[in-house]
Design goal:
Elements (H helix, E strand, L loop, with lengths): L9 E3 L3 E6 L5 H15 L11 E5 H7 L13 E5 L4 H6 L1 E2 L2 E2 L3 E7 L6 H12 L4 E6 L15 H7 L2 H20 L4 E3 L10 E5 L8 H16 L4 E3 L5 E10 L3 E10 L1 E3 L3 E4 L6 E4 L2 E5 L11 E4 L1 E3 L2 E6 L11 E4 L5 H17 L1
Parallel strand pairs: 2-4, 2-7, 7-8, 8-10, 9-10
Antiparallel strand pairs: 1-11, 3-4, 5-6, 12-13, 12-21, 13-20, 14-19, 15-16, 15-21, 17-18, 17-20
The protein binds guanosine-5'-diphosphate.
């Protein structure tokens, strides 16, 4: 995949997914599971890795979700997972004053329940009005659990002994009660018909993959039903994006790992990037995407592409990026004046700083 050429004009972009939750409840394991399974499921190897965000196309989601996602029910192109979990990155990563993530997974260890960082994460999700699902993780850690890797969860719950099932349910009801105390009506996801009014709880194990098909199906369904309108973007317009990380890349100097959430960016485009002092005005030297895994040689993990279209992750190489900051806005100037775009970037940085 040397190019992500768009259809001209308005298009539906990929919803951006963030993972939040208390330390050790399984955020990293869950992201690793999604990435790992996606790479295995996607024989063409078109999964975007190591640039701060993982793009999982709809057909790959459908394959990972077994029979739970019929691709013909969806016109959103897939899901883009932000690779850095936790509410610090969620709060830092913003788009035009709102949250960069369109939707979130709140991971709660079913054997440990709500913890201080769970409460903090809920407060942030409520404040930013970000829709979320709860991954009630580590069901396999309940004593006596019998596993079947990557299976949908309802069949697995039915396959347990009465004692194991009741132990799991006890943990799940505690989570549902704590969500209620936090102001959210919640239930097992299969009993939820209106995901706008109720939070769906998905019992799962990031370790065994059980319930992961359900989690992907709920994320995809929720996005399609409630976020579709917000996903319509002009893929021919100048890109807007957010810096995830500023990194040194051999052969390219300082680069930006970024998520583009609107419009498009082309090699050679003039861009404005938020920075510690004044915004940086520079020109894109190269847009880099990870090579498909099968083709990676150690010295050549990236390939250059001509263009990236929202929403996607990309590594941007350009001169003079040293002062750029994680969380800062990126704008393609396009046919606007550099002054106007610089003012916009400066204003947005200030609004982030006030928070
Ligand atoms: P994070 O701090 O939220 O990112 O949590 P991690 O993903 O690092 O997980 C913390 C620990 O819990 C690690 O030892 C994981 O192997 C383990 N873990 C994560 N998910 C599961 C799960 O579903 N089942 C079990 N049994 N262990 C898990």
């Amino acid at each position: 995949m040397a190019d992500s050429t768009p259809a001209d004009g308005t298009d539906l972009r990929t919803p951006i997914v963030a993972v939040l939750g208390h330390v050790d409840h399984g955020k990293t394991t869950l992201l690793d599971h999604v990435r790992g399974s996606a790479v295995t499921a996607d024989e063409a190897g078109a999964i975007t890795q190591h640039i701060g965000a993982t793009h999982v196309p709809l057909d790959v989601i459908s394959e990972m979700a077994g029979g739970l996602v019929d691709p013909t029910d969806f016109d959103l192109p897939g899901l883009l997972f932000i690779d850095t979990p936790g509410h610090h990155s969620f709060s830092t990563l913003r788009s035009r004053g709102g949250a960069l993530a369109d939707i979130a997974i709140l991971v709660v260890d079913v054997t440990d329940g709500f913890q201080p960082q769970t409460e903090e994460a809920i407060d942030i999700l409520a404040r930013t009005e970000t829709p979320f699902v709860v991954a009630a993780n580590k069901v396999d850690a309940v004593g006596g659990w019998r596993s079947e890797p990557n299976a949908p969860i309802q069949g697995r719950l039915d396959a347990q002994t009465d004692r194991v099932r009741s132990d799991v349910e006890e943990g799940l009801y505690e989570i549902i009660g704590d969500l209620s105390d936090a102001g959210f009506t919640a239930d097992f996801y299969w009993r939820v018909s209106d995901f706008k009014a109720n939070v769906g709880v998905v019992p799962c194990s990031a370790e065994t993959g059980e319930g992961m098909p359900d989690l992907l199906a709920v994320l995809m369904g929720l996005s399609q039903r409630y976020l579709r309108e917000a996903m319509a973007v002009d893929t021919t317009g100048p890109a807007a994006g957010t810096v995830l990380e500023v990194t040194d890349q051999q052969g390219f100097g300082t680069t930006l790992d970024a998520v583009i959430y609107d419009g498009r960016i082309d090699a050679g485009d003039r861009i404005v990037v938020g920075a510690a002092n004044a915004p940086i005005v520079t020109e894109v030297r190269a847009l880099l995407k990870p090579r498909p895994l099968a083709e990676i040689r150690s010295d050549d993990a990236f390939e250059t592409v001509d263009r990236v279209v929202a929403a996607d992750g990309v590594k941007i190489a350009a001169p003079e990026l040293d002062d750029a900051m994680a969380g800062a806005p990126i704008r393609v100037v396009g046919d606007r004046s550099v002054e106007a775009v610089t003012a916009e970037v400066r204003e947005e940085l200030q609004s982030v700083a006030v928070e």
